[in-house]
Amino acid sequence: MTIDEFYEEHEGIEYSVDADETVEVPEGQLSLDENEEDETKLQRVK
């Protein structure tokens, strides 16, 4: 990877970390889905 490739814009998840170290994610980027085994999965919304 070149330095130019490193600085190119790429897909990712926007987030911010609050002073109490919790993470805020803008609405519409992620969803929480539960399956039959009561496991919660974090999924990226496309």
TrEMBL record:
Segments of this protein annotated with the region Disordered: 1-46
Domain of life (superkingdom): Bacteria
Protein name: DUF4025 domain-containing protein
Native organism: Cytobacillus purgationiresistens
